[in-house]
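Q: I'm building a small set of examples for a reading group on sequence design. Run inverse folding on the following structure and report the sequence directly after it, with nothing in between.
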């Protein structure tokens, strides 16, 4: 018993219904319909080249259409074979039954053929189709109004797409044709726009075996990916599982076509059979890829398996045996040990049993490209792509091809080699050695004009370094200068060179002593010598030069000649002069800054001593602490004050002027004295800060500051306080420390007119109130909230008296800003 064939309406094969001889036509418009379609009219070209291009494009479209039709016919022919086996009929009867069953089921023949093959095959494509069928089982059936895009994702369409792609891939001559079949039949309906098939090499390299949907330049740019280069395909190769990239620009490494699809998604799937991965399938979307569902994963894995079958039939994809891999590694080591440029070439592509090209597998570090390209631009490329002119008659490629075919080595001296440099052919001569090692070819190329090239490089280096060389024969008086030395002297090239003995006559008179010592050491003591001097040129320009020379002696110790070089050090000299002036100015500025810091420190310490005696007031103990910055240049504007006013109230305040140095110190003096004077009026703390804001805004030189002002009434034990952008006070009561509620108040000097809210707190016996500046708590690596929490923890630790509590706070402070610190503490003794 054979299982029933699928379809929207079941048709029995047990009693085939035979109709007349009329052939049932295949309904047009279905996916994979092999019917011929009339191409749109072509525009008439006006010129011969345009007409030729239009003809080529039209023929290419016909070839692609013929390939698609052939792929669809392949699926239908395979389904007819299944019917022949099951119905025991001939091919013509099987074709007639296929079309009748498709017409009864309301399906295209291609869709029904795919379902028949799925029942018979039960392979990976069948599994992918069944998963999709289960996913869409609850969807409503397509209506006549269903758009074509939705119909292409229906259950039957999925099976038809996958089977058509399978037929095209298996019938493809190479991986390139397989990639085009996969994109056209299986991936475009899923929204994909491009596909690449990578072949994995034995050294974990990746070669682009086939691609479709990319620009014309992309396959050539990504034809080979060396081992160790991170790409989406390598990620799937290493992890041996599908990898989904929602956006290659955000989360993935570069790959083929990433410039044309900067925000597109990618799916890379390892392709292999029998547990062996031989390549990678890479699918590209213009946006995010299809949702990663089990059904979608089954479809892409089925397509990857088709790629693996195609790669198995490609000679380049076959893994090299262990011995060949070892021989290749040994050949690479041999090339690296040579002192001449060497290439390791691997055969690439076979056409009728003949190698069509060679891939440059490796170049050693002695490699010098005539076109100036680096090693990375040549390694991995095909020989005819990197050096297209090598394919000329009796050219280098023909020699390499002959050595690979016969195994007979080739040697040649002064062989002309032509390369393209900026689309201009450049010919050089080189000694060539070509030998075959296993299936590989070793090409050794020694450029004959190496000395000329090095001489040119030396000349450019002398020009850039403003160096002129000379040689003076003391036996026959012959003097040789290079062109750069004539330029340094400011005389025309070809003029009579000057002798070393004439050098003092062209130098500044103040340099006679230095030049005399130079000439005596060189000519009389016969030692290498150097000197710096000022050259007076004929054009009136004075240049600072340095001359370095060494004597050349014969076997008897007699002086034969002198070789040396001049270097123009004028720029260096004037740079040194400018640096000396800058150093003098910097030293003067540092001295002025140190003096200003010393005056600021003296002023601050005179007004703000580190400790003060207790402020005597009935029923209240007041203590203060001041800790200056550790570095003198960081002297700041932190200040405090504690005084008994005429009305009996106690003034308590701390403040912090922005900045450091003498300006901050003088600003601190102005604000502190102004607040003490204003407090004598008997105004409240909010009014005092309003007046102090006017002083900071109008009567100082752009001083801004924060401040905390409090007035304590001993009669009621009430503290009224206000703040101007400052941290709130801390109250320690019953062994627990808390900050008082924050009140509104802008920092001093920021605005012309500001109002300041007041708050009050009634102190109880044994309460302690702390007022401080941010130098006690602030840290560069933490928030102010964390700093205040640590202050609360330290402040509530038990101590013997108020002075000990303030010292304890300074000792255990973990602030790291090296700023000034002021603390004012009051303590209400217990009754």
């Amino acid at each position: 018993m054979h299982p029933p064939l699928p379809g929207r309406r079941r048709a029995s094969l047990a009693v085939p219904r035979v109709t007349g001889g009329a052939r049932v036509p295949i309904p047009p418009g279905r996916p994979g319909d092999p019917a011929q379609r009339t191409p749109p009219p072509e525009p008439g070209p006006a010129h011969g080249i345009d007409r030729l291009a239009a003809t080529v494009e039209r023929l290419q479209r016909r070839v692609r259409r013929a390939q698609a039709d052939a792929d669809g016919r392949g699926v239908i022919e395979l389904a007819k074979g299944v019917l022949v086996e099951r119905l025991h009929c001939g091919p013509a009867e099987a074709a007639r039954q296929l079309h009748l069953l498709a017409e009864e089921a309301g399906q295209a023949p291609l869709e029904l053929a795919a379902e028949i093959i799925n029942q018979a095959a039960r392979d990976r494509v069948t599994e992918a189709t069944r998963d999709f069928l289960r996913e869409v089982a609850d969807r409503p059936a397509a209506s006549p109004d269903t758009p074509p895009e939705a119909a292409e994702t229906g259950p039957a369409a999925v099976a038809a797409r996958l089977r058509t792609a399978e037929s095209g891939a298996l019938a493809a001559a190479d991986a390139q044709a397989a990639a085009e079949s996969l994109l056209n039949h299986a991936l475009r309906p899923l929204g994909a726009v491009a596909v690449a098939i990578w072949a994995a090499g034995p050294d974990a390299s990746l070669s682009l075996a086939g691609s479709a949907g990319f620009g014309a330049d992309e396959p050539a740019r990504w034809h080979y990916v060396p081992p160790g280069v991170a790409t989406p395909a390598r990620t799937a190769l290493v992890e041996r599982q599908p990898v989904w990239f929602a956006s290659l620009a955000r989360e993935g490494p570069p790959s083929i076509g990433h410039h044309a699809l900067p925000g597109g998604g990618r799916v890379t799937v390892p392709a292999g059979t029998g547990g062996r991965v031989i390549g990678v399938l890479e699918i590209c979307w213009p946006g995010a890829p299809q949702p990663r569902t089990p059904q979608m994963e089954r479809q892409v894995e089925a397509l990857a398996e088709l790629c693996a079958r195609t790669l198995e039939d490609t000679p380049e994809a076959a893994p090299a045996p262990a011995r060949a891999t070892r021989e290749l590694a040994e050949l690479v080591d041999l090339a690296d040990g040579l002192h001449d440029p060497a290439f390791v070439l691997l055969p690439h592509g076979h056409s009728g049993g003949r190698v069509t090209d060679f891939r440059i597998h490796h170049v050693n570090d002695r490699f010098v490209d005539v076109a100036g390209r680096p090693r990375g631009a040549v390694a991995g490329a095909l020989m005819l792509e990197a050096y297209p002119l090598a394919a000329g008659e009796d050219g280098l490629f023909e020699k390499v091809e002959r050595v690979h075919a016969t195994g007979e080595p080739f040697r040649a001296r002064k062989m002309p080699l032509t390369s393209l440099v900026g689309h201009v052919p450049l010919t050089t001569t080189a000694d060539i050695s070509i030998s075959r090692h296993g299936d590989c070819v070793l090409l050794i190329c020694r450029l004959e004009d190496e000395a000329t090239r090095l001489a040119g490089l030396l000349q450019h280096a002398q020009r850039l370094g403003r160096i002129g060389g000379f040689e003076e024969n003391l036996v026959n008086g012959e003097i040789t200068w290079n062109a750069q030395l004539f330029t340094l002297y400011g005389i025309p090239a070809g003029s009579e060179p000057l002798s070393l003995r004439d050098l003092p006559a062209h130098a500044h008179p103040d340099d006679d002593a230095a030049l005399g010592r130079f000439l005596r050491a060189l000519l009389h003591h016969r030692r290498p010598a150097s000197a710096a001097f000022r050259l007076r040129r004929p054009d009136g320009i004075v240049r600072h030069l340095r001359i370095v020379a060494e004597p050349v002696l014969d076997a008897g110790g007699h002086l034969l000649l002198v070789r040396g070089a001049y270097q123009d050090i004028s720029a260096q000299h004037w740079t040194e002069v400018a640096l000396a002036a800058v150093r003098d100015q910097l030293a003067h500025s540092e001295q002025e800054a140190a003096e200003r810091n010393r005056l600021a420190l003296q002023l601050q310490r005179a007004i703000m001593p580190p400790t003060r005696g207790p402020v005597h007031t009935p029923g209240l103990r007041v203590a203060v602490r001041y800790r200056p910055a550790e570095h003198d240049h960081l002297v700041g504007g932190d200040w405090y004050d504690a005084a008994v006013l005429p009305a009996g109230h106690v003034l308590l305040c701390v403040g912090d002027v922005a900045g450091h140095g003498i300006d901050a110190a003088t600003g601190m003096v102005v604000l502190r004295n102004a607040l003490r004077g204003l407090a004598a009026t008997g105004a409240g703390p909010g009014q005092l800060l309003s007046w102090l804001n006017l002083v900071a805004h109008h009567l100082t030189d752009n001083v801004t500051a924060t401040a905390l002002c409090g007035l304590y009434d001993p009669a009621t034990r009430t503290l009224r306080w206000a703040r101007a952008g400052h941290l709130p006070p801390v109250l320690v009561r019953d062994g627990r420390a808390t900050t008082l509620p924050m009140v509104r108040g802008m920092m001093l000097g920021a605005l012309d007119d500001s109002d300041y809210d007041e708050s009050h707190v009634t102190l109880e016996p044994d309460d302690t109130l702390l007022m401080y500046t941010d130098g006690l708590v602030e840290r560069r690596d933490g928030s102010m909230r964390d700093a205040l929490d640590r202050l609360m923890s330290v402040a509530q630790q038990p101590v013997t008296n108020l002075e000990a509590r303030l010292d304890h706070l300074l000792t255990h402070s973990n602030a790291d800003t090296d700023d000034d610190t002021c603390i004012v503490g009051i303590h209400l003794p217990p009754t």
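Residues 48-87 form the longest helix (40 residues).
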